[in-house]
Amino acid sequence: MSNLRILIADDHDLMRRGLKTLIELHPNWQVCDEANTGREAVTKAEQSKPDIVILDISMPELNGIEAARNIRRLSPNTEILILSAHYSDQLIRDILEAGARGYLMKSDSDRDLVSALDRLANHKPFFTSKAAEVMLAKFNQSGSNARVKEKMGDRLTAREREIVQLLSEGKGSKEVASFLGISVKTAETHRANVMRKLQIHSISELVRYAVRNQIIEA
């Protein structure tokens, strides 16, 4: 996306400046506004309708999760990237429930920020590998067949869980191989193992599995 407009919300001036520097190195990307509290972020997002809001998880007045919920309600087309210095399974679940489709550890921002913003600019999710594992955790589902598939999904390896997410996001075997730094043959082997373990026979079924388990959004 050209002319990407981004709002940065973080209560640390140094962090905001660092993010702004990384963003404005990219042609046609601009920081359209800044906020240092969650409440201010909501107000400014409603006013300026940015393409993406970067939200620190811990901010005064209103935390990042609640700010994300409000922004998604007031500006539905705005994508949200949550930044956190900490990690927990519950945090990932809360981020998903708030409607954010991006999550990035602050320690990874130098390396992954541009990739995260690029995916969100195209309305595709971006989550750290730890977050992807949480999104593959078992959720209560109706129907015995769904529960059986959930239990089988628990036996996927960490790499296979990565494969599920990438395939569900529309990547082919070559893209998966390139993304993970493995051979195409290895990617195809992982794909076959995933399908076998989950008793799934098509990509459309895999996408439904991913949506049901909140790995991706519908």
Structural class, by secondary structure, is: alpha/beta
Strand order of the largest sheet: 2-1-3-4-5-6
The helical percent reads: 40-55%
Number of helices: 11
Number of strands: 6
Tell me the β content.
Answer: 5-15%
Task: Please characterize this protein's 3D structure.
The protein has 218 residues and is of the alpha/beta class. 54% of the residues lie in helices and 14% in strands. The chain contains eleven helices and six strands. The protein has helices at residues 13-24, 38-48, 64-74, 89-97, 109-121, 129-135, 144-153, 158-168, 173-180, 184-198, 203-212, and strands at 4-9, 29-35, 52-56, 79-84, 102-105, 126-127. Helix 5 (109-121) links the parallel strand 5 (102-105) and strand 6 (126-127). Helix 2 (38-48) packs parallel to helix 3 and helix 8 crosses helix 10 (184-198).
Which tags fit this structure?
6 strands; alpha/beta; 218 residues; elongated; 54% helix; single chain
Topology, pairings included?
Blueprint: E1 4-9, H1 13-24, E2 29-35, H2 38-48, E3 52-56, H3 64-74, E4 79-84, H4 89-97, E5 102-105, H5 109-121, E6 126-127, H6 129-135, H7 144-153, H8 158-168, H9 173-180, H10 184-198, H11 203-212
Parallel strand pairs: 1-2, 1-3, 3-4, 4-5, 5-6
In short:
The protein has helices at residues 13-24, 38-48, 64-74, 89-97, 109-121, 129-135, 144-153, 158-168, 173-180, 184-198, 203-212; strands at residues 4-9, 29-35, 52-56, 79-84, 102-105, 126-127.
